[in-house]
């Protein structure tokens, strides 16, 4: 009888404890300044320590790469496992609840963020620390921080409710996208569930400082339109003087006709508002107008202008003279004859051309009749659970401008074409840990599609750099490593893909996974022979075709077409990412035309 009562009492007591814990905020653990000796010896006060570049240099005898901060491949083995490698051979799971918090800083041009997370309870007893990396999307900048526990520390399961935080990441440009990755250490080989990634964006200048403090985000917010008889005036508020905006422009369009107006207010007369006139607008027409500062990528403010009809006094009819009464019928008769002859000639000419080109008139007539029907818009199917995964390979021998064009293409595809892009420039930490060969092999196997950006550098076979007499052995080794890394990225990846294409072709398998593309400054002959078996495109004119290939949808079908917002050849430049891609391609084309040779380029 007493046993059930005792169990019930224990359950009630446990419920009270759990309810009490729900109201308590999770404890936050911040990094400490410790020495590596304290961490390696397991001394007190070294529970959660930040590792600096000086610590890495002192232990390993060389500086880590500056862009990687204090991070190095296999940090547990290098810094803790010297005497006992077994402590770095256990499996731990990726951390949970990764969040990014923007903290206050006084710089109006950048943001500062702090990353926080909770450790997983799987393998927490063997957890040795964390590694936090920050990667700019569409760029090559990397920041990394390393935190370690001392060698004798074994965390209990209760630590999974505590929040660990990183040091601040300062100086992040506004309106930028980043990917933050938190890795649980140690990281044994062939283990893929050791990290957690999160993509976030910094605030825009207007969000942080207000629109009146941001030149790129400013736009007129007060617009007033007035019409007095045939004169139409527009009044708008001027930008604050400290922004340095001296001129503006206005663009009105209706019925396919555009009217552009330059606006240059006088700084001595106008301080807050300015009024200008809109000329040559048609009566009875509704115009859509835009006004903006005359600056690159300025925000445009849209407003409507309705041009009213102007009533005019009808003059009294004039008396018709006898000579005019005689000439009027004669003129009408001549005009009728001329119109009849013109109609006959116009009807015969298309018939002669149709016969010459062997086109059946019935087909032309049927097309003209069907052209009056409205074309059906086909919506993109949404039955796919995850976006397609695209690996982009390229040549690193065509210079920095070509590599920048590849990065901007990857950023545009990921942001506006519903595709997950894999690019070694964005995953430099994994490339350094796994090795370039292993990283590319894994991406080729796991990606849904592979796109090879072809250029002159793909057919280039460079010779290894010859050491000069003044170089020491360390410099020769660094030069050889850089050469082997660049050589793989420009040749070996394409060679692997070519072998895959050849095997798939020999087995009669589908080749739709593989694609080749060239930018507008390259030529068809830059596509290697092995890759001419697969679909190839010219960018940016073939962006809709590339989208159709990635998502398996047809652009046209009888009576319908696929409308893709902001991916057409005319529309993609309206997006910031599209404009950046167009400018990067232009710069790369200029570099090629200046007589650039692959032997002189490279990373």
Please provide a brief summary of the model.
This protein is of the alpha/beta class and 603 residues long.
Question: Can you describe what's shown?
Answer:
With 603 residues, the protein is an alpha/beta fold. Helices cover 31% and strands 24% of the residues. The chain is built from 13 helices and 26 strands. The protein has helices at residues 2-22, 36-41, 53-60, 75-79, 205-209, 322-356, 361-370, 399-416, 428-434, 436-446, 473-506, 543-551, 576-593, and strands at 28-29, 32-33, 49-51, 96-103, 110-118, 129-136, 142-148, 163-165, 169-173, 177-185, 195-201, 223-228, 231-237, 248-254, 257-263, 273-278, 286-293, 301-306, 376-378, 389-393, 420-422, 449-453, 514-519, 535-539, 556-557, 560-562. The strands form six sheets. It has a six-stranded mixed sheet. The longest helix has 35 residues, at 322-356. It is extended.
């Amino acid at each position: 009888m007493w046993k059930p009562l005792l169990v019930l009492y224990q359950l009630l007591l446990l419920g009270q404890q759990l309810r009490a814990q729900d109201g308590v905020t999770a404890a936050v653990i911040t990094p400490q300044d410790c020495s590596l000796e304290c961490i390696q010896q397991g001394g007190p006060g070294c529970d959660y320590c930040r590792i600096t570049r000086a610590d890495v240099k002192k232990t390993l005898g060389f500086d880590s790469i500056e862009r990687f901060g204090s991070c190095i491949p296999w940090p547990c083995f290098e810094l803790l496992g010297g005497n006992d490698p077994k402590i770095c051979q256990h499996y731990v799971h990726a951390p949970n609840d990764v969040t990014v918090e923007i903290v206050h800083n006084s710089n109006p041009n950048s943001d500062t963020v702090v990353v926080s997370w909770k450790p997983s309870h799987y393998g927490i007893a063997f957890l040795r620390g964390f590694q936090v990396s920050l990667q700019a999307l569409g760029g090559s900048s990397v920041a990394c921080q390393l935190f370690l526990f001392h060698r004798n520390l074994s965390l209990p399961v209760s630590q999974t409710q505590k929040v660990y935080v990183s040091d601040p990441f300062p100086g992040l440009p506004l309106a930028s996208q980043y990917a933050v990755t938190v890795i649980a250490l140690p990281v044994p080989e062939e283990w893929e569930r050791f990290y957690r990634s999160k993509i976030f964006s910094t605030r825009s200048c207007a969000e942080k400082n207000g629109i009146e403090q941001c030149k790129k985000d400013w736009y007129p917010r007060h617009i007033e339109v007035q019409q007095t008889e045939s004169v139409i005036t527009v009044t708008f508020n001027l930008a604050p003087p400290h922004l340095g905006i001296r001129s503006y422009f206005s663009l009105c369009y209706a019925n396919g006709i555009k009217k552009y107006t330059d606006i240059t207010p006088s700084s001595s007369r106008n301080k807050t508002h300015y009024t200008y006139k809109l000329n040559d607008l048609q009566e009875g027409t509704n115009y859509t107008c835009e006004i903006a500062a005359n600056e690159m990528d300025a925000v445009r403010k849209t407003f409507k202008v309705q041009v009213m009809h102007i009533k005019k006094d009808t003059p009294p009819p004039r008396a018709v003279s006898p000579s005019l009464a005689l000439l009027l019928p004669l003129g009408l008769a001549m005009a009728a004859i001329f119109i009849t002859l013109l109609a006959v000639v116009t009807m015969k000419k298309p018939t002669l051309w149709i016969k010459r080109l062997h086109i059946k008139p019935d087909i032309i007539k049927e097309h003209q009749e069907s052209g009056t029907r409205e074309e059906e818009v086909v919506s993109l199917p949404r039955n796919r659970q995850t976006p397609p995964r695209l690996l982009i390979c390229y040549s690193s021998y065509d210079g920095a401008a070509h590599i920048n064009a590849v990065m901007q293409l990857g950023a545009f595809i990921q942001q506006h074409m519903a595709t997950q892009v894999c690019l070694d420039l964005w995953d430099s930490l994994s490339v350094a840990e796994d090795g370039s060969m292993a990283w590319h092999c894994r991406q080729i196997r796991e990606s849904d599609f592979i796109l090879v950006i072809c250029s002159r550098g793909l057919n280039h076979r460079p010779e290894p750099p010859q050491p000069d007499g003044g170089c020491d052995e360390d410099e020769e080794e660094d030069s050889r490593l850089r050469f082997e890394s660049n050589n793989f990225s420009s040749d070996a990846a394409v060679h692997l893909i070519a072998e895959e294409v050849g095997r798939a072709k020999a087995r009669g398998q589908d080749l739709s996974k593989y694609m080749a593309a060239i930018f507008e400054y390259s030529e068809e002959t830059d596509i290697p022979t092995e890759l001419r078996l697969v679909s190839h495109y010219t960018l940016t004119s073939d962006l809709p075709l590339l989208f159709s290939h990635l998502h398996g949808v047809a652009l046209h079908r009888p009576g319908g077409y696929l409308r893709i917002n902001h991916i057409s050849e005319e529309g993609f430049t309206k997006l910031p990412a599209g404009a950046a891609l167009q400018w990067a391609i232009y710069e790369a084309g200029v570099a090629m035309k200046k007589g650039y040779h692959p032997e002189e380029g490279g990373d």
